[in-house]
Specification:
One of its GO terms (cellular component) is extracellular space. It catalyses: Preferential cleavage: Leu-|-Xaa, Met-|-Xaa and Phe-|-Xaa. Hydrolyzes elastin. The protein is an alpha+beta fold and about 280 residues long. It has 3 helices and 13 strands; from the N terminus they run H-E-E-E-E-E-E-E-E-E-H-E-E-E-E-H. The radius of gyration is 17 Å and the shape is globular.
């Protein structure tokens, strides 16, 4: 156990969490845009064999050498899953990318519309690099302020009923405070305090964040925390006025992740907090 802890410490010391080697190029463009390659190195592609071959179905975030965070609604017990890491384009072979099967999938025991969160244990530990790094996650109970500029990333559809993106996309989605998002003419009771709402202005695109993918929010020191997991949006289109994208709030599930992740996950989180402070 001590040897494993030392190895994890060395990996995290070399690369950190939430600190890309190639920082994202941020803009306030309307709709999504291609990202700078490998500027969100914790973004993963979750793929299933539901079509008889590996096909992208959801996004997710790498948390440690062994664990990936995604949405529970992405998982169907009938299929097998694998995770591709270090990808920019899903249609091209890319140096440094890795594909690993899922050794274990844990969906939240109380998942329905609520508690839309899942953990995937990789079949082998991934080695961190310039293109594959873990996400930081926020402290438990952190509440983002209304209007906070966060970014959703993924290979989702480029427009309502449009084709999926070939290359990773990013879109600015300002946070909508719970008091607003839970109003009757917004998401009402469907928006709980264990969710984060973002977007919904009818202008900024919300198609680009695949289900399970991250809501990335920057800290004052420049590092990025994954505050949300894409859960649901309006069935009427990609970005409907007063119907922002709804994310599972990561900070509300820290204890759950530590509990179901057992020793390996707890050790990684503790080391991450010790080494970098802001990353947990």
């Amino acid at each position: 156990m001590i040897k494993i802890a030392i190895q994890i410490t060395n990996l995290i010391s070399a690369y950190g969490c939430g600190l890309p080697t190639f920082p994202p190029v941020l803009s306030r463009v309307v709709a999504g845009e291609d990202v700078r390659p490998h500027s969100w190195p914790w973004q993963i592609s979750l793929q299933s064999d539901s079509s008889g071959y590996w096909r992208h179905v959801c996004g997710g975030s790498l948390l440690s050498p062994d664990w990936v965070l995604t949405a529970a609604h992405c998982i169907n017990d009938r299929y097998n899953y694998r995770v591709e890491l270090g990808k920019h384009s899903l249609t091209k072979s890319e140096e440094g990318s890795v594909a690993l099967t899922a050794a274990k999938i844990i969906t939240h025991e109380d998942y329905n519309i609520l508690n839309d969160i899942a953990l995937i244990k990789l079949s082998s530990s991934v080695t961190f690099s310039d293109t594959i790094m873990p996400a930081c996650i926020p402290d438990e109970g952190v509440v983002l302020p209304h209007g906070a500029p966060c970014y959703v990333t993924g290979w989702g559809r480029l427009s309502t009923d449009g084709p999926p993106a070939d290359t990773l996309q990013q879109a600015l989605l300002p946070v909508v405070g719970h008091d607003t998002c839970s109003q009757q003419d917004w998401w009402s009771v469907l928006a709980t305090d264990k969710m984060v709402c973002a977007g919904g202005d009818g202008i900024t695109a919300g198609c680009n964040g695949d289900s399970g993918g991250p809501l990335n929010c920057q800290n004052p020191d420049g590092s990025w925390d994954v505050h949300g997991v894409v859960s649901f949006g309006s069935g009427q289109g990609c970005n409907v006025f007063q119907k922002p994208t709804v994310f599972t709030k990561v900070g509300s599930y820290i204890n759950w992740m530590n509990t179901v992740g057992h020793i390996q996950m707890r050790s990684t989180f503790i080391l991450r907090k010790t080494v970098f402070g802001v990353c947990f």
